[in-house]
Amino acid sequence: MISRYCLYPLGLAVITVFLFTANLEARPPADSFMQVRPFSAPTVEDNFLVFLENLTTVTNIYQLEAHGLNQGRSAFEPWAGSYWPIHQGILGLRYADSAFPKSKSFIENYSAVQSRPSNFMIENGEINKLSPSEKYDLLIGDRNFTLTHHMWNKGLTGFQTDGFVATWTGICHGWSAATHMGVPSSEKSVTVKDVTGNFKISFYPQDIKGLQSFLWANSAPTSVRSGDRCRQSVIDRDPFLRPIDPTCLDSNPMSWHLAVTNKVGLHQSSFVMDSSAGTEVWNYPVMSYDSSYFNPRTFISSHSLLASMESVENLKTDKYASFRHPSTKYVVGVAMDVFHPALVSPRVGTSQGNVIQYKSFIYDLELDENYMIIGGEWYSKERPDFLWSFPAGSQAGNSEDSLIEDVEWDLNSALPEAIADKARMATGRGKVLRKIANALLAASISIPESDDEVTPEEPIAIPTPE
Question: Does pLDDT of 429 surpass 80?
């Protein structure tokens, strides 16, 4: 359920635009930056068409208006999930164990797991307090807990190198990949027998989501991307507040606008945006959007395209005149709210509905004499860094999965040794099997309520960093 789905307040949008532009210094001579700064048009790498493949594309702003594409949403609603942070052990996070500290300090979390090893937890009858990776290792008969060691070694390597593990790092690229590609949300706990038949293991919905996220993080097909990643922790800017490094210009407003309106609006599909303009990467699947216009000369907001479109000759104080595409005839301002599922902390139980957040982007679009969108400039400090997705029909999986396509597991009996054997091979490379992850997901969606179902808890949204 969408917690807030309303148009960005038009008055606030105008004020934001005005304050942003008013703080810019007076524009220097037109050729001051032309030698080192690119035009407003997208670069070769910033091509939204990679998302559309051979699908119909609308690039004329009046045609976008005629198709009603000022608003849109994907047919499949992506679900909220965890980014399984590295400093908490990725899937080694014992979120169901109240004794696990869930600290921001990697070494504190790592020490807690070392003090109560996996086998100790099993012998103490605390199987259901194990982390998702520990449950997976136990399921496939790996009492060396190879996958779990892989999870913690990821953070340990970083800690030994840098002395800390950044709290923003994790597998949000796996979660966002799985959820925007239509992987269903797990609904209920699934209890299965391990390969030896000696243990019953309950995989909670968040365990199953975690396995899907890790599968897509480490075993995904080749992605397609538009834009470039900014790797500067401190972004150097020119007097117009535009980043000097071209990789930090972020996704061009033209590429962004046409990706959203065509992919999400016209074709009702999703893609992923890195919502952070700096060196950090925060991947979110785009679920829906709602936009309006403003006049870039008067900054008056309106739902009227005609009233908001201004001839470039009339923009006498245009701060971005030096960077406009040479074919620009008109400029129109856009204020857009973009809705996406939230990153949430995993909890035991069944989640109660989706958790949705939104970001507001403000920019302008450059139009040629035929009203084709040919470039644009950002006004808001918030803007997507780069955009990415996969070709339609893509699946995540490993070479071991192809070896056991005909092996069945009905989940009422112990995990077949043939599957467990290939799963142990995969964990040696830090991978999980699609066969197991998908079987647990299918059962999580279809099984009836059980008498011992854990009392559900609302997921807790992780605030988006400023």
Answer: yes
